[in-house]
Design a protein that fits this description.
The chain has an eight-stranded antiparallel sheet, with no helix packed on it. Strands 1-3-2-8 form a four-stranded mixed sheet, with no helix packed on it. It contains five helices and twelve strands. The protein is globular and about 40 Å long. The protein is an alpha+beta fold and 209 residues long. A hairpin with a 2-residue loop joins β6 and β7. The protein is 20% helix and 30% strand. The two termini are 24 Å apart. It has one domain.
Length: 209
């Protein structure tokens, strides 16, 4: 029984590591602070979701990671959460993407990635709908719900999100528990080069939902 538990934990860790592999890009100037974003509250039927609040960015500065507020990105003044139908964000981003798919190991259908110049949208199937599992940000005008984008400094990240994180030497990760062994938690991860953000991942693992 112990061996089965250990094997299961190892397989989950490998799956998490495979999903989280990214590429490094040159940092760019972070986006200017946006006006109060318009929430995209469309939810896919029969899919667990995150409630997106209307609370302002400043209200959360320095506060602990909040799944209901933080599991989203802002693009052109609109807030797009994970665990919802990807159709709206893909329409906003347009057709200039590289597309890949693979048979899902969690759901019936295909996991898909839509890779744009500065962002990749990763989805999982829910019937005829593709649900957002992860945003991977590498530049451009994309920011987190706390207005952190590629090009922000480490000090700006910790001022926005606080000190309750774990750092494995590659990712600086915020989750609800800040426990690195809890790989099923929703999370925001930052990659730094010389204390400047070069990659951001807003990730909701499918096996946690």
């Amino acid at each position: 029984m112990k061996n089965i538990v250990k094997l299961t934990a190892l397989l989950l860790a490998v799956l998490f590591a495979a999903v989280m592999i990214g590429c490094t890009h040159e940092p760019v100037k972070p986006a200017d602070p946006t006006a109060a974003p318009v929430d995209n509250t469309e939810r896919a039927e029969n899919t667990e979701t995150v409630d997106v609040t209307d609370e302002p960015v400043d209200y959360h500065a320095g506060q602990p990671f909040d799944e209901a507020f933080d599991m989203a990105i802002i693009y052109n003044g609109v807030k797009y959460p994970v665990r919802v139908d990807s159709a709206e964000i893909l329409a906003a981003l347009g057709d200039g993407y590289e597309y890949n798919e693979s048979i899902s190991c969690v759901y019936n259908g295909y996991d898909k990635t839509f890779q744009y110049e500065n962002i990749t949208v990763s989805t999982v199937p829910d019937g005829d709908t593709d649900i957002i599992e992860m945003f991977s940000i590498f530049g451009g005008d994309f920011v987190t719900a706390r207005n952190i984008g590629v090009g922000a400094t480490r000090d700006e990240v910790t001022a926005a999100y606080g000190d309750n994180f774990f750092d494995d030497g590659y990712y600086l990760t915020y989750t609800k528990s800040a426990d690195p062994e809890n790989i099923g938690e929703m999370r925001i991860q930052f990659v730094f080069t010389d204390d400047v953000v070069t990659e951001i991942y807003v990730y909701s693992p499918s096996y946690s939902n």
